[in-house]
Amino acid sequence: MGILDGLEALGLGNLKKIDTIYEEEHKNDEQEGVSDQPKKKEEKDFLMEKEFECPVCQRKFKQRLARTTLKCTGHDIDLRPVYEGIDVSKYDVIFCTDCGYAVLTRYFAALAPTHRKLLNENIRKNFKPQNRDLPETISYEDAVLRYKMALANAMVRLAKNSEKAYICLRAAWLYRGMREDAIQKGEKDKDKLKAMQDAEKEYLITAAEGFIKARAGETPPYAGMNSTTLDYVIAAIYMETDTNLKDGVRLLQDVITSRTATPQNKEKARELLIEIKKKLGE
């Protein structure tokens, strides 16, 4: 009795001509040249799509945001997180291309009537609507414009100093990422690279100024940061921009002696304090 006997009744008697069940292992023509390595992910693979309703013009629109499951590979001295495969700073501004409303994702919420009135009169009234098409990814140049729009909106609606300072900090991170990306892609134009570096420094200095004002006139949290974290960030900015180093020393000493700072924050403050003192010694 053959293994396939009985299939004739189902019309498959011709299968009995097959003389072996198991084929020898080999690659067919379609498999030739196919790598076992997984396909490298592109920037678009790290994004998700989400719908928003603009609190100014009430239009519903979709936007791409960085996924929440990204792998963080480390942090810069000023706490900028670095993720594998994507610069998340490019996707942190929600932007309505119809009326010009722009805001960091952290601050996206319903608006008070007075704020909506200010934005209608000063932003929407003069804004030229942009293309509604949803791009697969956002370029650094487009991301820079979004941050500038977010800062302009925050200024018009009289946002807290901490929010405006945080926008500037994120914009500085964006320029840093732009420069890193350009270097990785082989950019040789020193003037272009310096312009990115200068823009980053300008935004960092402006961020520090805003955080100092927020520290004096607001209650924590400041853009999600407690007092000791904010002091550390300001000192880190002073270190990066080589400005107000003595003030940076004082802020870090306050963090180290704070009763509320975590051991991890105190350790980072000690490490940064050593670096600033080296600079002062130079």
Notable characteristics:
two-stranded antiparallel ribbon, 282 residues, two-stranded antiparallel sheet, 6 strands, 10% strand, mainly alpha
- Quick one: biggest sheet? 2 strands, antiparallel
Shape: globular
Strand content of the residues, in percent? Answer: 5-15%
> What separation lies between the terminal Cα atoms?
93 Å
Order of strands, main sheet, comes to 1-2
The radius of gyration over CA amounts to 27 Å
**Residue runs with pLDDT of under 50 for 5 or more positions:** none
Count every helix, treating DSSP H or I runs of 4 or more residues as helices.
7
Mean pLDDT: 91
Order of helices and strands: EEEEEEHHHHHHH
Helix content range? 40-55%
Helix and strand composition category: mainly alpha
Total beta strands: 6
List the helices and strands and how they pair.
Blueprint: E1 47-53, E2 60-66, E3 72-75, E4 81-83, E5 93-95, E6 102-104, H1 113-124, H2 140-156, H3 161-184, H4 190-217, H5 227-241, H6 245-257, H7 263-281
Antiparallel strand pairs: 1-2, 3-4, 5-6
Describe the structure.
- The mean pLDDT is 91.
- The strands form three sheets. Strands 1-2 form a two-stranded antiparallel ribbon.
- The chain has a domain of 57 residues.
- 30% of the residues are buried.
- It is mainly alpha-helical.
Brief digest:
Helices cover 45% and strands 10% of the residues. With 282 residues, the chain is mainly alpha-helical.
